């Protein structure tokens, strides 16, 4: 029997081909970038409308899981919605049980476990997304990436999507552990611009940036394009608002 359509059967090279196909679905998605800096984390994602008839306000590529955790993705939007809902439920259960904000490592481990279960069960398929999860725990910025295989790692800067490899090369050249939040936003925009076909300007309407930090940022953005959510203070972390409804 061919292993091409069998999720739980390794091929002759020791690979699960359905997971490799899931990674191709990620590679076909819009580019998403995460950058951890000294005083926060930046998430940037390419936002393209499949049709000019779509209401842009109904598409949210960056979402909140909790007050101190946000995420974005590359791949299938439906799969992201399912994982987002599961992550929010786990976060609420943790809050009810321990009465404190969930640790980002705990959330990513639980999410990765859910993703991994879909790689060894019959009657299901792997999640066709890679998720970048950013947040702040005890004043320390964190950035994690969860892949379709169920692997998750903490990153200083990462990129997923169709231009991920070139974006990572660009980030390796420009990244510095001492960079500030504004520098990280600028680097994220330059990385996005470097991956666009042709020579578009930084004023493309489909670029969005959301940030996490330990202190109150400037009310006005560094560049006119990014959309920066209103700054609201919460003890111990930087709050940017309540999670959007699960229907988004």
Describe it for me?
The chain has helices spanning about 15-25, 75-100, 105-115, 165-175, 180-195, and strands at about 30-35, 40-45, 65, 70-75, 130-135, 140-145, 150-155, 155-160, 205-215, 230-235, 235-240. With about 250 residues, the protein is of the alpha+beta class. It has a single domain, classed as Aminohydrolase, N-terminal nucleophile (Ntn) domain (Glutamine Phosphoribosylpyrophosphate, subunit 1, domain 1, 4-Layer Sandwich), CATH 3.60.20.10. The strands form three sheets. The protein has a five-stranded antiparallel β-sheet. It has a four-stranded antiparallel β-sheet with strand order 8-1-2-9. The protein is globular, with a radius of gyration of 18 Å. The protein starts with 16 loop residues before the first helix and ends in a 9-residue tail after the last strand. Mean pLDDT is about 80; it is low at about 200-210 and about 215-248.
Question: What labels describe this entry?
Answer:
single chain; 248 residues; alpha+beta; Glutamine Phosphoribosylpyrophosphate, subunit 1, domain 1; four-stranded antiparallel beta sheet; globular
What is the structure about, briefly put?
With 248 residues, this protein is α+β, with helices and mostly antiparallel strands. The chain is 29% helix and 24% strand.
């Amino acid at each position: 029997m061919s292993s091409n359509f069998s999720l739980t059967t390794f091929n002759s090279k020791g690979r699960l081909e359905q997971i490799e196909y899931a990674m191709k679905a990620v590679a076909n998605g819009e580019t998403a970038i995460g950058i951890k800096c000294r005083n926060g984390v930046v998430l940037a994602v390419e936002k393209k409308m499949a049709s000019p008839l779509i209401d842009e306000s109904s598409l949210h590529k960056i979402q909140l899981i909790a007050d101190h955790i946000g995420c974005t993705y590359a791949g299938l939007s439906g799969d992201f919605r399912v994982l987002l809902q599961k992550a929010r439920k786990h976060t609420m259960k943790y809050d009810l049980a321990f009465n404190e904000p969930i640790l980002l490592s705990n959330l990513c481990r639980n999410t990765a476990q859910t993703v991994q279960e879909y790689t060894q069960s019959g009657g299901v398929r792997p999640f066709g997304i890679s998720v970048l999860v950013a947040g702040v725990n005890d004043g320390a910025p964190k950035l994690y990436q969860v892949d379709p295989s169920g692997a998750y790692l903490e990153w200083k800067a990462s990129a997923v999507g169709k231009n991920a490899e070139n974006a990572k090369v660009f980030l390796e050249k420009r990244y510095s552990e001492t960079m500030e939040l504004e520098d990280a936003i600028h680097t994220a925009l330059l990385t996005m611009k470097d991956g666009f076909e042709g020579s578009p300007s930084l004023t493309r309407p489909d670029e969005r940036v959301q940030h996490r930090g330990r202190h109150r940022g400037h009310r006005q953005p560094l560049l006119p394009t990014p959309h920066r959510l209103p700054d609201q203070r919460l003890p111990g972390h930087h709050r940017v608002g309540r999670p959007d409804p699960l229907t988004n």
